[in-house]
């Protein structure tokens, strides 16, 4: 976690040749990136990254074919931003699950080419005395950085999570390393537990780990591993509804659950930050793909 009192400025909007802004699914505005280092897609609704492909690689981000793009419902898949709270909040009293950020329209502040042959996009949102800045860098490594500043007269408690839907070939064969010995809350079966060895999913999974180190998602069916590194994050969340749970989502096809696993980077729960007026907090993540 890092905090500061300086929000910085925003450059005037200018699109490099490797980026284009226009309507996407449901007529919703999106930024398309096609750069030598990687390609991607960011919807302004929720500032949701819905696609990322590193150079010469396959799609690394899952977005449901039944996702609703109506400007109201949060997009199912991609990398939704959960904030200013996660779940029902630190005290369990929030009504809108995972906050309101992921369903609101953001402003595209700047787009520029990077020295590594990629694209950097900056998006912003101001609502309820909170100012959000979100930087997305699409290169061979995907880099995401979120900052939140309290613009109001009173302290506000803030949580934030980047809900990465990772595309996999077969979730039943996926192995997740980097969690051995870490304590987790099991939101499906209840209770606190300690992870022993590699995590292999075998049913509905919703676990909140107190983990700050990189997680390695080995995907034999796709012949690759995806490495997720949280930046100034306190927790890692692993989620998949499995066949049973997927039936409860109208915006998720029943046959899609084997093709993704959510590995989230989060600053939540006991590590929620109480922001004084004018104070900010930042967190983020980095994702890279390696062949097996």
TrEMBL record:
InterPro entries: Aldose_1/G6P_1-epimerase, G6P_1-epimerase, Gal_mutarotase_sf_dom, GH-type_carb-bd. One of its GO terms (molecular function) is glucose-6-phosphate 1-epimerase activity. Residues 1-27 are annotated as: Disordered. The keyword Nucleotide-binding does not apply. Keywords: Isomerase. It catalyses: alpha-D-glucose 6-phosphate = beta-D-glucose 6-phosphate. It comes from Actinomyces urogenitalis DORA_12. Its EC number is 5.1.3.15. The keyword RNA-binding does not apply. One of its GO terms (biological process) is carbohydrate metabolic process. One of its GO terms (cellular component) is cytoplasm. Pfam families: Aldose_epim. It comes from the Bacteria. The active site is at residues 163, 264. It is an enzyme of class 5 (isomerase). This is Putative glucose-6-phosphate 1-epimerase. Belongs to the glucose-6-phosphate 1-epimerase family.
């Amino acid at each position: 976690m890092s905090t500061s009192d300086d929000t910085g400025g925003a450059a005037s909007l200018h699109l490099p040749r490797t980026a284009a802004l226009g309507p996407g699914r449901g007529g919703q505005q999106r930024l398309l990136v096609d750069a030598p280092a990687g390609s991607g897609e960011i919807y302004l609704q929720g500032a949701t990254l819905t696609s990322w492909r590193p150079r010469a690689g396959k799609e690394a981000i899952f977005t449901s074919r039944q996702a609703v793009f109506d400007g109201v419902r949060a997009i199912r898949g991609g990398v939704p931003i959960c904030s200013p709270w996660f779940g029902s909040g630190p005290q369990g009293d929030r009504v809108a699950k995972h906050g309101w950020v992921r369903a609101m329209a953001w402003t595209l502040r700047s787009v520029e080419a990077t020295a590594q042959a990629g694209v950097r996009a900056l998006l912003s949102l101001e609502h309820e005395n909170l100012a959000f800045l979100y930087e997305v860098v699409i290169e061979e490594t995907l880099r995401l950085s979120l900052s939140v500043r309290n613009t109001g007269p009173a302290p506000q408690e803030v949580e934030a999570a980047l809900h990465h839907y990772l595309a996999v070939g077969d979730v039943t064969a996926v192995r997740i390393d980097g969690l051995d010995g870490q304590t987790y809350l099991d939101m499906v079966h209840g209770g606190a537990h300690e992870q022993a060895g590699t995590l292999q999913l075998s049913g509905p999974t919703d676990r909140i780990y107190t983990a700050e180190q990189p997680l390695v998602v080995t995907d034999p069916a796709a012949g690759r591993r995806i490495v997720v590194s949280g930046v100034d994050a306190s927790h890692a969340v692993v989620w998949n509804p499995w066949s049973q749970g997927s039936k409860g989502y109208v915006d998720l096809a029943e046959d899609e659950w084997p093709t993704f696993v959510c590995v989230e980077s989060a600053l939540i729960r006991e590590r929620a930050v109480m922001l004084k007026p004018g104070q900010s907090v930042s967190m983020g993540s980095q994702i890279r793909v390696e062949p097996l």
